[in-house]
Structures are given as C-alpha cells and as structure tokens.
Amino acid sequence: MIIIAGKLWVDAADRGAYLAGCSSIVEQARGAVGCLDFALSADLIEPGRINVYERWRTDEDLARFRGAGPESDQAAQIRDAEVSKYRISDVEAP
How far apart are CA 19 and CA 40, in angstroms? Predict the structure, then answer.
C-alpha cells in the first residue's frame, strides 16, 4: 500500500477557492482504480494550510492517476509543500 501525506500552503484568502476547485479531482481520484482514499482538507489552525492524505494499492495505480500532475493554475497557487510517499507493508488495528 502507498500513502501520500503532507501539507500544502496557499494564500490564506485563497484557500477556500483552491479547495473548491479541487472537488472534481477528489471525485476522480476516489473513482480511480486502486484508490483506497483521497482527501484534501483545510487545516483547523493554520489559515493557508491544506492537509493532504491519499491511499493507493500500488505505485502503478498512483502513477496512472497522477499523469502530468496538478493543473497549472492550481500549481501556481501553491506557495510551499511538504508531501511524502510512504510504503506500507502491514496494517493493523490501533
């Protein structure tokens, strides 16, 4: 299993519009082969921060969905990012 997790920063005044513009991407991802979960959410404390969480079955599923990456106007709004890819070998209840 692959987990993509981290955070993006956009201008605080633009965060709501940025997230609204991502709703179709979230829908597409959740319908994509191999997507186990996909969420982008406003952080509760930092006004310009967006939390990123994705779970995929395989690298191939992730690569098929990603294609060329984010739309250019969305990418232009991102001021900074800290997002990592994690390979998970086992899952168990907390």
Answer: 7
